[in-house]
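Last lecture ended with a question: if I hand you only a sequence, what can you say about the shape of the protein? Today we answer it with a concrete record. The protein is Major facilitator superfamily (MFS) profile domain-containing protein. Below, first the input exactly as provided, then the predicted structure, then a couple of comments.
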Amino acid sequence: MNSRSEEEDGPSTLDSSLLTTTDVSGKRRSNQSSSPATAVVVFSTLVAVCGSFVYGSAVGFSSPAQMGIMDDLGMSLEEYSVFGSILTIGAMVGAVMSGKIADQFGRKMSMGLSQVFCLFGWLAILYSEASWLLDAGRLSIGYGVGVISYVVPVYIAEITPKNLRGSFTDVNQLMISIGISVMWLLGILIHWRTLALIGGIPCVLQVVGLFFIPESPRWLAKIGLWKECENALQKLRGENAEISEEAAEIRDYTETLDELSESRVFDLFQQEYAKSLIIGVGLMVLQQFGGVNAIAFYANSIFISAGFSSTIGSIALVLVQIPFTILGVLLMDVSGRRPLLMVSASGTCLGCLLLGISFFLQDHLQENKGLSPILALVGVLVFKGSYSLGMGGIPWVIMSEIFPMNIKSSAGSLVTLVNWFGSWVVSYSFNFLMEYSTQGTFFMFSSICCVTVLFVAKLVPETKGRTLEEIQASMNTSIET
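The predicted structure:
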């Protein structure tokens, strides 16, 4: 499964001349030439990632709002842990339904429906006077975010040309990071209710923007709307662009998939889908159990526990997170997915190791207590910078690339569910783990990040510069001819 060359991982089993040709060296390559980023592709991506901003805002809200909510509503630490983690419960429900919703109603309508739940949730938090309404609002946002986390990267991957797909899909992670950062920064200055009001603004922006962007051509092809598929593809590639080869490739691939029955969840556990499933589920498990949401949800608490200013720490996180996410977007289609993932996972391993050492010094070496806050800051910054570089976005990029249309609904829902379940486990248990053993918690996260490096090196293929049809055909034997 390792991506050693195009020849090994290319679509060797697809014989259609519309898909590939053979050059003198024997390598198979796609006829489809690289395409530029048109204004429609850029605008459609920006509208889609408004949902990613909502995702980031929801994740980033709990850290700066913690003290204010606990004081105003008289909540205990246990009650606030429920509030912080209940987002992921709603997201798990949304994740289970996301694939079917996206297939039944289309990518655009799915994004619109998800924002209705998110907007209701923010309003419930805004006007809450009791913890139950606060939790209900957070749960509703979670449901919307669970759908968003699947639909947005899938939509972007399906509308962008192959030479730009990685970078454009990773803008999803950039907007999540910006959403988190905005909440962290504004949370220093404004009341948590005002922060909730601000959280609802991008929900409205996406709903309005959806009226002005095309539907995914691949989804239109999947439901048999060939004329609409070609029209959407023409809009995305430009009025004067030649789309015949790309349209023919989509048609050929879709007709092949039509011969297969629509999968159910249990159908995924067949040998022909083993590669895709192991990679998709494995990356999501390792992403979450590496500790990202522990730091994202409770960054302020970590800084306070380490004896460092939470205000300065939050500002420093923003200054690191966004530039590294932008760097990851720029490198995605240059360095490739695998190298960036391995560098990113190595950095998160180092960051958690530094955090573990910081709390070890604090607990066991009194003479080095002054070093502990600095190490904690460096550890958090190294972790978030490294995570933003690749581990945040690339698993979602790969998830959107490796599953063929006939199993994308079920597989995407399963992978997204696994991601949010891991997020719930970590976000709910983190405060209790910290009480039990602070250094042990971060040493555990560091070990999992180390396993991630090995997992990527051994199992994850390189998907840069290949069409979705090529990637899926090379990984899933059920669509071979």
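Comments.
1. The chain is about 75% helix and 0% strand.
2. The CA atoms of residues 265 and 410 lie 5 Å apart.
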